[in-house]
From TrEMBL:
<feature type="domain" description="Peptidase M12A">
    <location>
        <begin position="101"/>
        <end position="312"/>
    </location>
</feature>
<keyword id="KW-0862">Zinc</keyword>
<keyword id="KW-0732">Signal</keyword>
<dbReference type="GO" id="GO:0006508">
    <property type="term" value="P:proteolysis"/>
</dbReference>
<feature type="binding site">
    <location>
        <position position="209"/>
    </location>
    <ligand>
        <name>Zn(2+)</name>
    </ligand>
</feature>
<keyword id="KW-0645">Protease</keyword>
<feature type="active site">
    <location>
        <position position="200"/>
    </location>
</feature>
<dbReference type="GO" id="GO:0008270">
    <property type="term" value="F:zinc ion binding"/>
</dbReference>
<dbReference type="InterPro" id="IPR001506">
    <property type="entry name" value="Peptidase_M12A"/>
</dbReference>
<keyword id="KW-0378">Hydrolase</keyword>
<protein>
    <recommendedName>
        <fullName>Metalloendopeptidase</fullName>
        <ecNumber>3.4.24.-</ecNumber>
    </recommendedName>
</protein>
<keyword id="KW-0482">Metalloprotease</keyword>
<dbReference type="InterPro" id="IPR024079">
    <property type="entry name" value="MetalloPept_cat_dom_sf"/>
</dbReference>
<keyword id="KW-0479">Metal-binding</keyword>
<dbReference type="GO" id="GO:0004222">
    <property type="term" value="F:metalloendopeptidase activity"/>
</dbReference>
<feature type="signal peptide">
    <location>
        <begin position="1"/>
        <end position="31"/>
    </location>
</feature>
<dbReference type="InterPro" id="IPR006026">
    <property type="entry name" value="Peptidase_Metallo"/>
</dbReference>
């Protein structure tokens, strides 16, 4: 991830993170509010499935491109949860039904830290660079490697949602969880930025949302009175599993909701730290630690968790 200067990098990255949290998490559907008026917002009966066609494997040049993609405008507040084309995604970006059981055993891990992948031919050249650049963050900082699929029966399938075999009626940005076979990861229009891709790839690697760790109550206070009852479930702690008990709770994790996510009154937080702070999650500027750990060596918990689960560091 080459940069022209430390200061310009931090400015651009901080602006990107702010844009992402406002547009992606503030309405409780991280990526979905980024949609524009396009085919991804059509009702399910109008969303004809498109046959998936695999593109060429990503190249070394694409991995090293460093392209981040254009963040949505921070003035775009997105759509409310009720107006999403489909509000059934778990926590905004996980497929329903399979996610609760998937992380409970070692089957959620990829063997030998190798993630075979195929990528749709529908992505443009720039979008391929952005996705490859997100993968390269993992390549640089962990032992995890995204490798072209050959004959493997278990692999990551990077698609547009309408190319999904079983989930084409769920538009937006989302990931399944590997239980066996194919794991689909959708990046629709408005989703293809490096920040979102990194988040969804970490889901694909087995990790859920940080604020739902079993030890949540030791670190944050959830303001349920400012959250619609139907959204309470995305703040409730999960049962322990190997992925949500590794390492310590990380208030700055790229997998943590922002403090105002799902707020009924957007001027008031839905979560605060034990000492009342609202700085948390991906909206915490440069300390969104997965992206630039080499600049902030004290904020590497996401990387430590990945390396513990996959690399035994």
């Amino acid at each position: 991830m080459a940069t022209k200067s430390g200061s310009s990098y931090l400015f651009l990255f901080s602006a990107g993170c702010v844009a992402i949290i406002v547009c992606c998490w503030a309405n409780c559907v991280e990526a979905n509010p980024l949609w524009t008026e396009n085919e991804n917002q059509l009702d399910s009966q109008d969303r004809n499935e498109i046959v998936f066609e695999a593109g060429e494997p990503l190249t070394d040049e694409e991995f090293k491109s460093g392209v981040q993609g254009k963040a949505a405008s921070i003035d775009n507040q997105g759509q409310s949860w009720e107006k999403q084309a489909h509000s059934g995604l778990v926590g905004g970006d996980l497929l329903p039904g399979i996610t609760k059981s998937a992380n409970k055993n070692a089957a959620a891990k990829w063997a030998n830290a190798q993630v075979p992948y195929v990528i749709s031919s529908s992505f443009s050249g720039e979008e391929r660079q952005i996705i490859a650049s997100a993968m390269d963050v993992y390549h640089q900082k962990t032992c995890i490697r995204f490798v072209p699929r050959r004959t493997q029966s278990e692999y990551l399938k990077i698609i547009r949602s309408r190319e999904s075999k079983d989930w084409s009626h769920y538009p937006g940005c989302w990931a399944g969880t590997k239980v066996g076979g194919v794991l689909e990861l959708s990046l629709d229009n408005g989703c293809v930025t490096r920040s979102i891709a990194i988040h969804e790839l970490m889901h694909a690697l087995g990790f859920g949302h940080e604020q739902q760790r079993p030890d949540q109550a030791k670190y944050i206070i959830v303001k349920y009175d400012n959250i619609e009852p139907k959204n309470h479930q995305w703040f409730k702690p999960d049962q322990p599993n190997p992925f949500n008990t590794v390492g310590r709770y990380d208030i700055n994790s790229v997998m943590h909701y922002g403090a105002y996510t799902c707020a009924i009154d957007p001027s008031k937080p839905t979560m605060v730290t034990k000492d009342g702070r609202t700085s948390m999650g991906i909206n915490n500027g440069p300390t969104a630690n997965l992206y630039i750990p080499f600049l902030f060596p004290g904020h590497q918990m996401d990387l430590r968790k990945l390396n513990t689960m996959y690399c035994k560091y």
